[in-house]
Amino acid sequence: MKFFLDTADLDEIEEAASWGALAGVTTNPTLYARVGGKLADFESHIERICTIVGDECPVSAESVATDRAQIVEDGRRLASIAPNVVVKVPTMVEGLAATRTLADEGIRVNMTLCFTVPQAMLAARAGARYISPFIGRFDDISEDGIEQVANIVEAVSNYDFTADTVNGEQLEVIAASIRSANHVTQCALMGADIATVPFSVLKKMVKHPLTQAGIDSFMADWEKVK
Ligand code: E4P
Q1: Are the CB atoms for 12 and 18 separated by under 8 Å?
Q2: What's the whole-number mean pLDDT along residues 123-132?
Q3: Which of 46, 94, 134, 146 has the fewest CB atoms found within 10 Å of its own CB?
Q4: Residue pair 172/129 in contact by the 8 Å Cβ criterion
Q5: What's the whole-model pTM score?
């Protein structure tokens, strides 16, 4: 499993990147608004994220357009910011059509707000490079977010989508809307390719009380041998 950071906060991205285990970043309009972002600065903000994480780490930047022509235009502009920009497009008819066009032009798309297996299958055939099923938001409406992501991971694994994706790259499922380290555990066990996690969850993933207790006791015993 790879880890993406789900944030637009540059300090969080710098800190997480320094840990050595970060493979990408996902942003969305809400996350950008949360850091006080302004529309005029959006592209330079995405460029700064790309510079922090480097060319090997995909950075998702979302189009909020609702018609295919505008999504395609947004996608071309966003993709021109840096080679690692992935255009995030909602799973809807106009999004599917735009994804097909963008994929045919060699632009990678992350189809987001995906909640069902049929949506995921359509996104895959439309040429999405990544599919992002949401866990937390599905749980919020009393559905089982983990089960739905597991179903999508299994359904995707049943087929070969390399003829549909940019450069025949492997389609990957990004487990999104993750709210806890336990969600990460469940996603890893089901074989989700990627988990995109908020920084608050990433910090919790590192910690265990027995790890800290062990560090404390080893340090105390080391004092005795000095
Ligand atoms: C990721 O791509 C999504 O934007 C994100 O995980 C949404 O998470 P939320 O449901 O906690 O807002």
Answers
A1: no
A2: 98
A3: 94
A4: yes
A5: 0.96
Nearest CA to ligand 1 atom 6: 177
Catalytic residues: 88
Best of 134, 135, 183, 202 to mutate for ligand 1, by most ligand atoms within 8 A of CB?
Answer: 134
Distance 146 CA to ligand 1 centre (A): 14
CA of 177 to the centre of ligand 1 (A): 4
Q: How is residue 162 written in tokens?
A: 């390399």
Average pLDDT of the residues of the chain:
97
The answer to whether 111 touches 91, Cβ cutoff 8 Å, is yes
Atom of ligand 1 nearest to the CA of 26: 2
- Considering only CA atoms, which of 117, 57, 120, 113 is closest in space to residue 84? 57
In 3D space, the residue among 102, 84, 114, 66 whose CA is nearest the CA of residue 17 turns out to be 84
What is the sign, positive or negative, of the torsion defined by CA atoms of 148, 154, 158, 160? Answer: positive
Residues whose beta carbon lies within 6 Å of some atom of ligand 1: 6, 26, 28, 112, 132, 134, 136-137, 176-177, 196
Mutation test residue for ligand 1: of 135, 196, 197, 200, the one with most atoms within 8 Å of CB: 196
Q: Where are the alpha helices (DSSP H) in 143-198?
A: 145-157, 181-190
Residue 5 CA to ligand 1 centre (angstroms): 10
- Could you tell me the pLDDT band of residue 8, with boundaries at 50, 70 and 90? very high
Kindly report, residue by residue over 46-57, the tens digit of the pLDDT: 999 999 999 999
